[in-house]
Every structure is written in structure tokens, then in C-alpha cells.
Amino acid sequence: MTTPPVPGPVSPDHSQPSAADRRRWRQYLADEQAEAATYRYLAERREGEERDILLALAEAEGRHEEHWRQLLGPEADKPMRPSFRNRLLGLLARRFGSVFVLALAQRAEGRSPYSNEPSATSAMAADEQIHEEVVRGLATRGRTRLSGNFRAAVFGANDGLVSNLALVMGIGATGVSSGLILFSGIIGLLAGALSMGAGEYVSVRSQRELLEASRPTQVTLSAAKSLDIDANELVLVYLARGMTREAAEHRAAERLGLYTCDCDPSLSLNPEQEDEAQVDANESVGTGLGAATSSFCFFSSGAIIPVLPYAFGMTGLGAVALSCVLVGLALLLTGSVVGLLSGASPLKRGLRQLGIGMGAAAATYVLGAFVGTGAA
User: Fold this and answer.
1) Contacts of 290 (CB under 8 A, 6+ apart)
2) Quick one: 10 exposed, middle or buried, by C-beta within 10 A (0-12, 13-18, 19+)?
3) pLDDT digits 0-9 by tens, 75-120
4) Phi/psi of residue 256, nearest 5 degrees
5) Using DSSP, how many helices (H) and how many strands (E) does the chain show?
6) pLDDT digits (tens, 9 = 90+) for 276-333
7) Rg (alpha carbons) of the chain, rounded to whole number
8) CA angle (226 as vertex; 220, 229 as ends), nearest 5
């Protein structure tokens, strides 16, 4: 998880390391201390298993810290600042402790220098690789909880930014007055926000209804006692659910009362687990009202940005340029947030979002200019 300076050559005799070696080891030590503190801050905001996992990660970073202490000897007590990334992670963990911090920690764990550090043990390098997967798993839990309404929020904000910028630039290119551009932008905001909200509500409600319709019922419990044992129609039920024939026959025998043992728990009836799975599925989809509200609000917040220059009385190319700059910054921000949550590069995701949005706006501007020229 540490990101110290590029390692230099290490003296084969650790009893007489070079000044560069000692400085690098002190940086590793400071970063390990910061990482352990970050995991402890995150653990304070969680309970149960997640808390235990984070504390175990902090303990592992403590073992790494001890390794560098032993190499440094008395010099280990000389203070050194952790890297900027680790200081930022610690600050965010103290203030928020959210899935964003875990996503950042996941990326940082993946950049550990220990695999190329001669003074680090192979166990330490392996620990850091495993830590990335552990943090990825914890971050995935948070991403799952966010995925429903967060998807609607990001999509709504991005759509508001791009669609209203394209609308404003397209109309502005025809040469109409600034008042008409502002009025068109506001109408586009309201129309788009209402459309997005309604569309998200219908989409999420439909998805939840499809999940509910696909959920197995417990009718087999009441019908099992009246079935023909030789024909055993229950096997067809479980085959239709995607089980292998062996698994289907096993569960059918349980329902018919032929098996009283729990020979293979993975094949046994467990209504509680089925209910938990349904709850998880519903959480990942989100609620219709929540998705609609998020979409409406975030579309509006995105769509208002392109019309701000006109709302403050700006006209001409100055208003167009400022509108593009504001929208570009917002696109970079939304793209970076998605990149963080997905564990990808925030800069790359932000630039991709910027390129797509500006490309759409530029195409609309050219079309508006063409229409304006033709009308003239």
C-alpha cells in the first residue's frame, strides 16, 4: 500500500546500509504506521466481521512495521512523514470511513513496492498482494450497497451535464438571443429531469418485479406429500431452476421426506438463506422512489451548470466557453468518482467522461451552426 521513492541499490550487508537505504526504510516505516492507523480508523466505524477484518489488516501492517524497525535499529525513532497518499487516506478514514476510502486503499495496496524491494521479505510482498484482495472484497460490499441509487445518481448527473450543454451550444450556434438560450436550457433541465426520474422509477420497479416473479416459492413443501413418489415431479422443478440431476434428485428426496440427514448442506432447503439472497438482490437494485429521486436531483444539478453563464447575464463566445469549462470540470469529477469506486484510475475515467461529453456537445454545436447558416 506504500508508495515511497524508487528504491536504490541495497547494500548486501544490512549492518552497513547506505544513507539512501536508511531513508527508504524510514519511509516504509512511516507508511506502514500510517496504513495501520487508517485500518484502525475504518474499523471504528464498522461492526462484526468487517471490523475484525480491518483490525487484522492493521495487525499485519504492524508486523511489517516491526521488520523495518529491526533493520533501522536506533534510527527507527527518527520521525518521517508518511507519503501524501497515506496522509490523505488517514484523513479521509477519520472523517468519513466510507467505501471511497476502501476503494482508494485497494488501489494503494496494488501499488506496493515490496515485490521489487530487496530488503522486504517474500512474506511481506505476499501479504500486500493478499491485502489488495481483502480490501477489494470489503469495498465490493460497499459498492453493492451503493450500486442501485448511485448508478441512477451518476447517470443522471452525467446525462444532465452532457444533454443540456449540447442543447445550449446547439441553440446558441444558431445565433438566437441569450434570453432564449437561457429559457431553452431551463426547459431542457425540467423536461430531462422529469423524464429521467420517471424512467428510473419504471425501470427499477420493473426490475424488482422481475426478480420477485423469478423467486422460487415454497409450494413444493405443501405439494410434496401428495406427489407420486415414483414419478417425482419435484425433480423437474429443481432441474428447471438450473440444478444438476444429482442435486435435483437429492433435494426432491428431502422434500418427500426420504432423507432426514443433512448430507450436503448446499443441496438442502434453507429458507433463511433464500430470504437473505432476495434481500441482497433488492438492495443491489435499489428502490424505485429512491432511484427516481436520485436521478431527478442529480440530473437537475448537472443540467443547471451549462446555463449558469447565461443566468448571470453573459453572452456570446464567453458564455459558451465558460459553460464548456464548468461542464468539463464536472465531467472530470463524476468520471473520477466512478473510477475510484470501481478501483480503476480516476484520471483515465475522468478523461474518458470528458471526451465523450465534449464530443457530443461539439457535434451538436456544429449541427446548430449549420442549421443557423441555412436558416439565414
Assistant:
1) 148, 149, 152
2) middle
3) 888 878 888 878 877 887 777 667 777 877 877 777 788 888 999 9
4) -80, -5
5) 13, 0
6) 444 444 444 456 677 777 778 888 888 899 899 888 888 878 888 898 899 999 989 8
7) 29
8) 90
